[in-house]
Design brief:
The protein is of the alpha+beta class and 164 residues long. The protein contains 4 helices and 12 strands; from the N terminus they run βββαββββββαββαβα. It has one domain. A hairpin with a 5-residue loop joins strand 4 and strand 5. The mean pLDDT is 92.
Length: 164
């Protein structure tokens, strides 16, 4: 069973394609390892982060007589809706959010640069990166997910997820 987080931008209570794709490119940078365009025009990105290799994990694997290195990775799949020009998005879903702090640094960068909110299933699961974002959220979001929590550090996102 998977876990998803959603990041969406809002303008006066309505979803709005206000996030420049260039901001997502900057935020996730070198972690973007795979990019595809779906038939509906939406995007799929896989972001990956190297992580410490567990001591009991072999360094290589042999397949068909060839030896390949094994690299421990932490990843997340992003499903991104874009405007017709492919230049802006109203947000994305991250399936199986990565555990690496750099993933949460990327989310925080986007939250602080836009009127966007990060949320997930559960109570008290709504976070924002700017105080003025509150006025742009739809009231039903707050009723459903709880008062938005203003974050300033990526670790605060992880802590909120753990608490919900």
């Amino acid at each position: 069973m998977g876990f998803e987080v959603f990041l969406n931008s809002y303008d006066r209570g309505e979803p709005a394609k206000l996030i420049p794709m260039s901001l997502l490119e900057s935020a996730f940078g070198a972690a973007i390892k795979l990019r595809t365009v779906n038939t509906d025009g939406s995007l799929f990105w896989r972001v990956e982060y190297e992580t410490e290799q567990p001591p009991d994990m072999p360094k290589t694997v042999v397949m068909d007589g060839r030896e390949y290195p094994l690299i421990a990775q932490d990843s997340s799949d992003l499903y991104i809706s874009v405007d017709a020009a492919g230049e802006r998005t109203d947000g994305f879903m991250a399936a199986g959010p990565a555990g690496n702090i750099r993933f949460y640094e990327s989310l925080l960068m986007i939250l602080q640069a836009t009127h966007s909110a990060l949320y997930w299933p559960g109570e008290n699961s709504l976070v924002i990166g700017r105080e003025d974002t509150k006025e742009h959220l739809h009231e039903s979001m707050v009723e459903t997910l709880g008062e938005p929590f203003l974050i300033a550090q990526p670790e605060q996102i992880i802590e909120r997820i753990r608490q919900s």
